[in-house]
Design a protein that fits this description.
single chain, 296 residues, 35-stranded mixed β-sheet, 2 helices, 35 strands, 6% helix, elongated, disordered N terminus
Length: 296
């Protein structure tokens, strides 16, 4: 008991931490429980918080985990994982050498740059840009203010909103609602199953839009014939397959299928095969091109 008190007193003096609960410093971890206040600075240990914590400035540590409420007036740089269950809010940037996981609400006032994966099962918001070194998975709501770049696969099963371009190198799949105020780019496949509004182009190896059964139980679908819209062009190195989709500009692909109730106001270009549904609307006759002409 006395040893824990001594460790707590040394830690408070060293890094400016105060807590109404317990405060323990072990060899590679700092454990805080109750209501805590941290002045900010560098802690060369893993920081674990159970309860509520207020961080007055930038914090650098070797990993961060909170269960409860965390508010930071600066940014957090973690040389390890970042995990939060509860409320997590920081005014600055979130930087991590590894992965980040959130369950609850998370608001990052600056950029979020992670070397590993990111996973959120609650409300997730980044005011700036989001960069992920591996995969990104959102099962709640996600809102990114600026550009999104993920080196792996991006999957969203809730609502996904991005204020700029979205690049998911290993593929993108949305099964909830999506609104993207820019281009959507991938070196693999892009699959959009939920309702979507994309302000730019969709460019990938394969593009599939509109193949979901979610709408069958919704009366509103009978009113909104095309819940998928692309304000730019669709370009696929291999296959384009769209249904109930409005495309403002052109569609290009090796093999192209424009299925029921889709509308293309530009021109459809294809190399090998073309399939047009009777209920689809095309502003122009499809044009067959050579493989070397297949470019955006």
């Amino acid at each position: 008991m006395n040893e824990n008190i001594e460790n707590s007193e040394k830690l408070e003096k060293k890094v400016g931490i105060s807590s109404s609960g317990t405060l323990r410093e072990l060899e590679d971890i700092v454990i805080i429980s109750g209501s805590a206040r941290i002045e900010g600075g560098r802690i060369d240990k893993f920081v674990k918080i159970s309860g509520s914590a207020k961080i007055d400035g930038d914090l650098e540590c070797n990993g961060f985990k909170s269960s409860g409420s965390t508010k930071c007036a600066g940014g957090i740089t973690s040389h390890g994982d970042v995990r939060s269950s509860g409320s997590f809010g920081i005014d600055g940037n979130l930087l991590s050498d590894n992965e980040a996981r959130f369950s609850g609400s998370a608001i990052i006032g600056g950029n979020s740059i992670l070397q590993g994966s990111i996973k959120s099962s609650g409300s997730f918001k980044v005011e700036g840009k989001l960069e992920g070194g591996l995969n990104a998975k959102f099962s709640g709501s996600a809102k990114i203010g600026k550009e999104t770049v993920v080196q792996g696969l991006l999957k969203s099963s809730g609502s996904f909103n991005a204020g700029d371009n979205v690049q998911a190198v290993q593929g993108l799949k949305t099964s909830g609602s999506a609104r993207i105020d820019g281009n959507v780019l991938s070196q693999r496949s892009i699959t959009i199953e939920g309702s979507s509004a994309i302000a730019g182009n969709v460019v990938a190896e394969d593009v599939n839009i509109g193949f979901s059964r979610w709408w069958k139980n919704l009366r509103i679908f009978s009113i909104r014939e095309r819940p998928y819209s692309v304000s730019g062009s669709i370009f696929a190195k291999n296959n384009v397959n769209i249904k109930r989709t409005f495309v403002k500009s052109d569609v290009k692909g090796l093999n192209v299928a424009i299925r029921k109730r889709s509308k293309v106001e530009g021109t459809v270009y294809y190399v090998d095969s073309i399939r047009i549904s009777r209920s689809a609307e095309l502003a122009n006759e499809p044009i067959r091109i050579k493989a070397e002409e297949l470019s955006l």
